[in-house]
């Protein structure tokens, strides 16, 4: 098996347990809070920190930078109908962050690698 890169991987926001599990499986040390399901990440040259990301179920969150899987899961849990264009990470969302959540509303997310 090849040697793991000494550089920390690029991590965006997303579902905490998936990201934490992947980092652990790959052997990367990381810090994280025990509460909340969604996280933001930050890294320095020597460490990875995962911090809680509060999701207000009444306001549209920013899903840019998330994987399609995480963005769709979050948006559908808020009641949106999601249309996906592209693949990779979210670079555009048709409903702007901070708008009131409207269950049943169509939202388009555009992804790019």
What's the total helix number? 2
Which shape, going by the Cα principal axes? globular
Radius of gyration, Cα only, in angstroms? 15 Å
The topology string of helices and strands comes to: EHEEEHEEE
Portion in helices: 10-25%
Distance between the termini: 26 Å
The residue-averaged pLDDT reads 84
Q: How many strands?
A: 7
Largest sheet: 4 strands, mixed
Number of discrete domains: 2
User: What are the segments in which pLDDT stays under 50 over at least 5 consecutive residues?
Assistant: none
Structural class computed from helices and strand pairing: alpha/beta
Strand content: 25-35%
| Major sheet strand order | 1-3-4-2
């Amino acid at each position: 098996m090849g040697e793991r890169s000494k550089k920390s991987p690029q991590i965006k926001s997303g579902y905490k347990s998936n990201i934490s599990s992947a980092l652990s499986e790959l052997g990367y040390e990381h810090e994280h809070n025990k509460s909340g399901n969604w996280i933001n990440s930050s890294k320095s040259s020597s460490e990875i920190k995962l911090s809680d990301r509060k999701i207000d179920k009444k306001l549209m969150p920013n899903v840019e930078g998330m994987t399609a899987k995480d963005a769709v899961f979050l948006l559908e849990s808020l009641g949106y109908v999601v249309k996906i264009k592209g693949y990779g990470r979210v670079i555009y969302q048709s409903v702007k962050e901070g708008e009131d959540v409207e269950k049943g509303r169509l939202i388009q997310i555009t992804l790019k690698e």
